[in-house]
Amino acid sequence: MTNVLTLTNVSKSFGALKVTDEVSFAVPKGQALGIIGPNGAGKSTLFNLITGNFLPDTGSITLLGRDVTRSPAMDRVRMGVGRSFQIPQPFEGLTVFENLLTAAAYGQGKREVEVQDTCVSILGDTELLSKANTLAGSLSLLDRKRLELARAMATGPKLLLLDEIAGGLTEGECLALVATIKALHAQGITIIWIEHVLHALTSVVERLLVLDFGRIIGVGDPDAIMASKEVREIYLGMEV
Predict the structure, then answer these.
(1) By CB count within 10 A, which of 25, 61, 130, 167 is most buried?
(2) CA torsion angle for 168, 77, 217, 87 (degrees, to 10)?
(3) How many domains does the chain fold into?
């Protein structure tokens, strides 16, 4: 099976603090991988290394068979890395549709007229078609999360990174968003998802990776990982 992403012995330090410590894993095409870990475990840093916002001190990162270890973030977007952020960051003065057009045009390096049909399709996939002409700044939290997902999809990702996209939602809102993510994954999109809401995460992903103090302490079947005594100790008191 072809790997979309491969990290080999990737480390990153900020001063004396080693935030990512010899991290190695691969994500096959079409798989959904969940990443969990307590606050400060290095999850966001790992995403920033994958996207090119940070460069590793040591190790290598391969995307679709190409070494991108030193490649800038925009190159990786154009290669197919799409990302949502934990706190939605839309252009609030633009409509939902205009937000998607902007993401698609810049992310794919195309003219807006070339990506209009794709954006309409993504609005349908993310339950936002009825809000196409609504200003992004007036959306509810759920719809802002949907827009964050839609904007990441508009860049044409071969690898979709989701950063705590279920955070802050009610149970019903969370279930609605998870249904959308499941539908996107069913289309064959490869996903890496950082999430604290574990029941949402484990309802989608096929593999679970656990980070603690920048190191991988487990990776594999979600049920087996969550049955681990070490993982349960780390997550004592968290939402399971």
Answers:
(1) 61
(2) -20
(3) 2
- For the chain, the farthest-separated pair of C-alpha atoms sits apart, in whole angstroms, at 54
64 shares its domain with 32:
yes
- From residue 124, alpha-carbon distances to 96, 129, 134 in Å are 12, 5, 15
Residue range 3-60, pLDDT digits in tens: 999 999 999 999 999 999 999 999 999 999 999 998 889 999 999 999 999 999 999 9
Tokens of 30: 């079409």
Reference 173, options 138, 142, 129, 204; nearest CA is 142
4 and 160 Cβ atoms separated by less than 8 Å: no
Residues of the domain holding 150: 84-156
Please, what is the Cα angle at 84 between 156 and 112, to 5 degrees? 40
69 and 168 co-located in one domain: yes
Q: Are residues 196 and 97 in the same domain?
A: no
